[in-house]
């Protein structure tokens, strides 16, 4: 007999359907509670192994309130809810659930979610590492803040396994660094890690890029092409900006995750691949699922072990370490005798909001090293739109999307509207032109820029 599960749901029909699904799958249902008060009583009396929670319940307390109580007693839980409001989803994430399923759902979705949740729980519960391993540094990840230490601990827990990892964070927070760390600390580290920027893949060539093609499979296919998954066989594939994949490509990716096999475009032979997937996104995939832009079953397969990267503004105690690291790196690379940042300069860095996160800090230090004529960087030329934030009345701060749009517009103005090529905005922002075009489209920036 499988684990005992308590259902906390105030809609009787939904709760009863859940009960029937769980029993059919071999789980024991200890009861149905329609409020937090009833759930507390049932937990004390029946001692369930897992709790399925709706967010909106009868009474004054919500499922999120119950989730915080469950965390205190180390009782694992998952959410089942139709509420996909962004503020609610952020509150849900803070409770660190083992899964989130959007109503309505299929029986198969429920069972897959539970299997993945149990797998995650077993990894966290059953992995013991020594104190020496806990304090071991990871190359390329710099900082001593508590939120960063939590990320490092998660990397060390999941890296030795073959579990899929989903890295979530704003642009510029270092998601690719995390992918490399997961790969380097795994048994796959002697094999390749292949990086794929999903946002930069032309829609018509996604299948060919990922899975390869045979000679003559389409016009222009003059030779056989080995796709990214074959290139990564035995190693790791990092799918950056996974939320940018169109739905038809998501179906094909799901098959790779489920069956561990691919077919080259135009081929008639199935090829087995042994690849560990690390995906990354700066979007809320739960919200993307709710709005029909991302497949629920693919989300379950990718979100086995999520790692959320904090933005730089939430780990300001790391800014000085990062700034000095980049200073040393670029001073050495450019052979400039610059060895410090003034107190005024450091205060500027600490007071800035960092919409571009670590990437923005790195580019700022690189530019400043090239422009500074003394042995110390005395001050920084920070964007005025952000420096003036302290003068903006509380309650009307710009959103991250608005700030990113302004940042791109500033780069376009500096490059006189040129996007790609030498001196173009893409070069200034240190990103691929295809990625910049994708962001411009998403943010509604005039396509007349070239």
UniProtKB/TrEMBL annotation:
Residues 4-118 form the Response regulatory domain. It comes from the Bacteria. The modification 4-aspartylphosphate is found at residue 54. The keyword ATP-binding applies. Coiled coil: none annotated. GO terms for biological process: phosphorelay signal transduction system; regulation of DNA-templated transcription. InterPro entries: AAA+_ATPase, AAA_lid_NorR, CheY-like_superfamily, Homeodomain-like_sf, HTH_Fis, P-loop_NTPase, Sig_transdc_resp-reg_receiver, Sigma_54_int. It holds the Pfam family HTH_8. Residues 141-370 form the Sigma-54 factor interaction domain. GO terms for molecular function: ATP binding; sequence-specific DNA binding. PROSITE patterns: RESPONSE_REGULATORY, SIGMA54_INTERACT_1, SIGMA54_INTERACT_2, SIGMA54_INTERACT_3, SIGMA54_INTERACT_4. Gene3D superfamilies: 1.10.8.60, 3.40.50.2300, Homeodomain-like (1.10.10.60), P-loop containing nucleotide triphosphate hydrolases (3.40.50.300). The keyword Signal does not apply. Keywords: ATP-binding, DNA-binding, Nucleotide-binding, Phosphoprotein, Transcription, Transcription regulation. This is Sigma-54-dependent Fis family transcriptional regulator. It comes from Chryseobacterium cheonjiense.
């Amino acid at each position: 007999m499988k684990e005992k599960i308590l259902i906390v749901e105030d809609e009787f029909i939904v709760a009863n359907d859940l009960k029937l699904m769980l029993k059919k799958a071999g789980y024991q249902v200890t009861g149905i509670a329609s409020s937090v008060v009833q759930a507390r009583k049932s937990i004390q009396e029946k001692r369930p192994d897992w709790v399925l929670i709706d967010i909106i319940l009868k009474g004054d307390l919500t499922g999120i309130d119950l989730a915080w109580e469950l965390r205190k007693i180390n009782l694992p839980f998952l959410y089942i809810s139709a509420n996909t409001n962004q503020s609610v989803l952020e509150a849900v994430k803070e409770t660190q659930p083992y899964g989130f399923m959007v109503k309505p759902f299929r029986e198969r979705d429920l069972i897959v979610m539970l299997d993945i949740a149990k797998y995650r729980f077993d990894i966290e519960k059953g992995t013991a590492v020594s104190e020496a391993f806990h304090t071991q540094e990871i190359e390329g990840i710099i900082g001593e803040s508590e939120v960063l230490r939590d990320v490092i601990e998660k990397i060390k827990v999941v890296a030795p396994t073959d579990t899929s990892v989903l890295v979530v964070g704003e642009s510029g927070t270092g998601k690719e660094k995390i992918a490399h760390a997961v790969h380097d600390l795994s048994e796959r580290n002697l094999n390749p890690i292949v990086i794929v920027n999903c946002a930069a893949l032309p829609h018509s060539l996604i299948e060919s890029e990922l899975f390869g093609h045979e000679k003559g499979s389409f016009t222009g296919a003059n030779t056989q092409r080995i796709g990214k998954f074959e290139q990564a066989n035995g190693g790791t594939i990092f799918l950056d900006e996974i939320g940018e994949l169109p739905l038809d490509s998501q179906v094909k990716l799901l098959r790779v995750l489920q069956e561990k096999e691919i077919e080259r475009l135009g081929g008639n032979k199935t090829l087995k691949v042994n690849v560990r997937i690390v995906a990354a996104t700066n979007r809320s995939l739960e919200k993307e699922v709710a709005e029909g832009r991302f497949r629920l079953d693919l989300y379950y397969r990718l979100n086995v072990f999520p790692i959320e990267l904090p933005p730089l503004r939430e780990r300001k105690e790391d800014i000085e370490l990062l700034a000095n690291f980049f200073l040393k790196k670029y001073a050495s690379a450019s052979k400039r005798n610059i060895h410090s940042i003034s107190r005024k300069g450091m205060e500027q860095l600490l007071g800035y909001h960092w919409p571009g996160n670590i990437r923005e800090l790195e580019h700022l230090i690189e530019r400043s090293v090239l422009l500074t004529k003394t042995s110390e960087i005395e001050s920084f030329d920070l964007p005025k739109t952000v420096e003036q934030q302290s003068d903006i009345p509380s309650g009307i701060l710009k959103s991250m999307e608005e700030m990113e749009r302004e940042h791109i517009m500033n780069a376009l103005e500096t490059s006189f509207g040129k996007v790609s090529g030498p001196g173009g905005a893409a070069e200034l922002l240190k990103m691929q032109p295809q990625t910049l075009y994708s962001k411009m489209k998403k943010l509604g920036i005039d396509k007349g820029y070239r």
